[in-house]
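Sequence in, structure out. Go.
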Amino acid sequence: MGDKTWKAVERAICGLLGGIRTGPVGKDGPDCVLPNALLAVQIKHRATVPNWLTGAMDQTIHDAGGAQYPILILHEKGTKYEESLVITRLSDFIDYDGSLDITAVETPDLGHPPQKRIPPPTRPRSN
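Output:
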């Protein structure tokens, strides 16, 4: 019997990331284990993704113009800004070389005082 589609998707995406699919662990662990153990990967497969979401990602990619790393920030009304979701294409994530330093970029003058900068999370150190 062949794989269920979602299993095949998990296996393929884990392979693209250089990891292995963990199997049916439910809420007790990630769908994919990577060699560096820095990322906890959950993979969700759907028949369709909402048009507004793909449209927003298309706009983000267009605005990046190939010279910037495209990320879409999705914020839900009533939640803390820090709890917003960060969305990017898997191909951009795979191609990312780790050289992105958001603190080195000049902030454009938007005509109002800057918001408080939230420091990025620190990576756990492996021994």
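Check: Residues 108 and 114 are 10 Å apart (CA to CA). The longest helix spans residues 51-64.
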